[in-house]
Amino acid sequence: MDKIRQKKAFICDMDGVLYHGNDLLPGVHEFIAWLKANDKKYLFLTNSSERSPRELSQKLRRLGVDIDEKHFYTSALATAAFLASQRPGGSAYVIGEAGLIQALYEVGFSMNNIDPDYVVIGETRTYSFEKIEKAVVLVRRGAKLIGTNPDLTGPTEQGIVPATGALVAPIELTTGCRAYFVGKPNPLMMRHALKVLGCVREDTVIIGDRMDTDIIAGIESEIETVLVLSGVTSRADLKHFGYAPSHVLTGVGEIPAP
């Protein structure tokens, strides 16, 4: 535990680490207070592209935790930064929510459903056959297919629902084109996060509840990893993976010193 506490920067997943749906998890208040009291740098990183940092900050505030929006980083922001570096002033046809569209606008992209440079897919509740059909036509015409993250499923208050990886699959199968996914476990998102924090990987730890995104992202980026069992992964699940986290904790409430 001392090794974790001595780190200067913390990259934390959100759902399954801080909360489940609209329920704050045990020990989160103490963990946030410890980060602030010890002048730690911290960034809450989510593969979800639906909400903007402001909306995430407001959600945490509703749950009783006050965190400024500058401490949030999403796969939508990482995707926008990547696309802006690839095609400055480009355009996209987007199947996604406001957080993704806003992130693309902020880097100078425009929305285009005629001849876009990219077809970009993120989490959405307005998925339809018409949108799939449009995306397929545009990809066949030459638009590059981008997914904000490869997650096949995501947790909600009602249970497991399809996430971006599942929404992209019909377009990949129909066009024969493989999407490029920017979010975790892509090390690109981790490098973006380190730049935002202004820290090197040796001084950083990543905390998450998913072996296939959070933990592998840390391992491939050479960042120390902490798996918390407060989300989708149980201790019994660890035997199914060919890699292991640096540390396994019940939840983030174990990190602050007693």
The helix content is 25-40%
Number-wise, the strands total 15
Biggest sheet, in brief?
6 strands, parallel
Number of separate structural domains: 2
First-to-last CA distance: 11 Å
Query: What CATH architecture of the largest domain do you see?
Result: 3-Layer(aba) Sandwich
The CATH class of the largest domain is identified as Alpha Beta
User: Would you identify the CATH H-level superfamily of the largest domain?
Assistant: HAD superfamily/HAD-like
* Amount of beta strand: 15-25%
Number of helices: 9
Series of secondary-structure elements, N-terminal to C-terminal: HEEEHEHEHEHEEHEEEHEHEHEE
Question: Average pLDDT value?
Answer: 94
- The whole-angstrom Rg is 18 Å
Structural category: alpha/beta
Task: List segments where confidence is low: pLDDT < 50 over at least 5 consecutive residues.
Answer: none
CATH topology of the largest domain: Rossmann fold
Q: Can you describe this structure in just a few lines?
A:
By secondary structure, this protein is α/β, with parallel strands linked by helices.
Structure explained in plain terms:
This protein is α/β, with parallel strands linked by helices and 258 residues long. The protein folds into 2 domains: 2-47 and 184-254, HAD superfamily/HAD-like (Rossmann fold, 3-Layer(aba) Sandwich); 79-181, 3-Layer(aba) Sandwich (Rossmann fold), CATH 3.40.50.1000. It is 35% helix and 21% strand. The chain has 9 helices and 15 strands. The protein has helices at 2-5, 28-37, 53-62, 75-86, 98-106, 129-140, 164-175, 187-197, 211-220; strands spanning 9-12, 19-20, 23-24, 41-46, 72-74, 91-95, 110-111, 118-121, 144-147, 153-156, 159-162, 180-181, 204-208, 224-228, 247-249. The strands form 4 sheets. The protein has a 6-stranded parallel beta sheet. Strands 7-6-8-9-12 form a 5-stranded parallel beta sheet, with helices on both faces. Strands 2-3 form a two-stranded antiparallel sheet. Helix 4 (75-86) runs parallel beside helix 5 (98-106) and helix 6 crosses helix 7 (164-175). The radius of gyration is 18 Å and the shape is globular.
